[in-house]
Structure formats: C-alpha cells, structure tokens
Amino acid sequence: MAFTPLIIIIIITTLVSLHAMRDDRVFDTLHFSAYRIKHDKEYHRFITNILIHADLPHLIFNMFSLYFLGEFFELVMVATYGVVLGEFHFVAIYLLGGLFANLYAYMRHQDDPNYRSVGASGAVSAIIFAVIIWVPDLPLNLMFIPIPIPAYIFGVIYLAFEYYAHKKGNTGIAHDAHIGGAVLGIVYVLILNIDKGKEFLGHFF
C-alpha cells in the first residue's frame, strides 16, 4: 500500500481518535470549543477536532467515506496537476474544509462554554463536494439507496437534508459543519477550474 496523503490522513486520524477515546485529556485538548478559542486563545481548536471522534461508529463512517471518494479524487488531482501539486490540492481541500466547517459554529457559540464538537465530517464533506463538482455525473452508491445515483443529484439531496436538519436542531450532529465543509469544497474547485461549475450547472439547465 502506497502511503499517499489520503492513507496518512486516515492512519493519523484513526490512531489519534482511538487514543482520545481512552484518554480524556487528549480529547479535551483537541475538541472544538469556540469559547476556549475566543477566551483562552486556543486557536489550534479550529482544526484539531478533525483528528478525534465521539465514538467508533463515528470514526469508521467518516474514514470509510473519506477513503472511497478520497481515493478517487486524489487520483484525479494527481492526474490533472501532477503528484506534488495534485496532492497539495487534495490535502488543502481536506484541511481547509475542516477549518471552514468550524467558522459558523465559532460565530454562534463563542460565548457558550458548554458547546463542543469533534469529528472530520466537515473535512470529509469538502472532499465529497469537490468530487461532486469535478465529476457531477459520477454514480454514487449509498447505503440507504439501493441503486447508483448521479453525484449532482446526491449533492442537492444532501445539502437540502443538512439544511433541514440544521434548522430543526436538537439532533446532536453538527449539520452546519457539514454544510460549511461542502461550501469550501465547492468554492475550492471553482477557483481551480471555473469550467467545472459550468459543467455542473449544465446538468440542470
């Protein structure tokens, strides 16, 4: 197995997450806390929460989602931009997705000492939506839908559901982080290649 950035991200995230599940001090140091960022200047929390997860199912779901679409997208980036630049773009989308996913929560909860969040869902969402914009007709197989559906249709359904769930509230899931990561993935691809946005819209109009 080649130790690509994707594999390294998965290995590091898995090891740190498993360690944090056993050591509350590690969990407390890395989780996202808007309050502690603002009042204690702990700026690392904007990104370190993508390294830890609430439990094993949370970790497994995120890492499997990242692997199956991330492997494809990493190859696309390398084929398009070469190894160094392609892998840079892949890692940049992932990390910036994780960062951007926390910005809305920071604005809402910076004075709430009880709010915290963990998980790589926002970063993974950035990769997923980068794939959707890059290859909108890519067939995606989902656990709850028995037949493949085009990526661009999945993207619309996903964002609509996340927006509804966010507005509904009280789900225990940071839906705003999923949306934030998705927006970063979309914007990054459009900056790289605006024609990808035109191709995506062409599937609707």
Would you write up a description of this structure?
The protein has 205 residues and is mainly alpha-helical. The chain has a single domain, classed as Rhomboid-like (Rhomboid-like fold). It has 10 helices and 2 strands; from the N terminus they run αααααααββααα. It has a two-stranded antiparallel sheet with strand order 1-2. β1 (139-142) and β2 form a beta hairpin. α8 (151-168) packs antiparallel against α9 (175-192). The chain is globular and about 45 Å long.
Distance between the termini: 42 Å
Name the CATH superfamily classification: Rhomboid-like
Query: What's the CATH topology label?
Result: Rhomboid-like fold
In spatial order, strands of the major sheet run 1-2
**CATH architecture heading:** Up-down Bundle
Summarize model confidence as the mean pLDDT.
Answer: 92
